[in-house]
Specification:
With 90 residues, this protein is α/β, with parallel strands linked by helices. The chain is built from 3 helices and 4 strands; from the N terminus they run βαββαβα. Strand 1, helix 1 and strand 2 form a beta-alpha-beta unit. It starts with a strand and ends with a helix. 14% of the residues are buried.
């Protein structure tokens, strides 16, 4: 069964991660890439913001695609708690 995954961020780094997910799936389907999470930008590939993560009812894998390491530590704490909550909800 494929695992649901989202990418937090929409930068070039996020697109590289999406490409990597696609390459992994071309060898053996493993990831069900749902889309990008972003609080500031809304386009066809952005499926939601932080609230989307909090309201997701199944197991969800999250990649934080932020190349700016100063922001990475700020985001890591924020999303670690959210992902922990999502994975242990059931």
């Amino acid at each position: 069964m494929m695992k649901d995954i989202v990418i937090v961020g929409v930068s070039g780094f996020a697109r590289e991660i999406a490409w990597l997910i696609d390459r992994i799936n071309s060898v053996e389907p493993y990831w069900n890439f749902l889309g990008y999470i972003n609080n500031c930008i809304s386009d066809g590939k952005v499926i939601g913001d932080d609230a989307y993560l909090s309201n997701y009812s199944k197991e969800l894998h999250v990649v934080i695609a932020k190349a700016d390491t100063r922001k990475h530590f700020e985001w890591k704490g924020k999303y670690y708690m959210c992902v922990f909550y999502i994975n242990n909800r059931n």
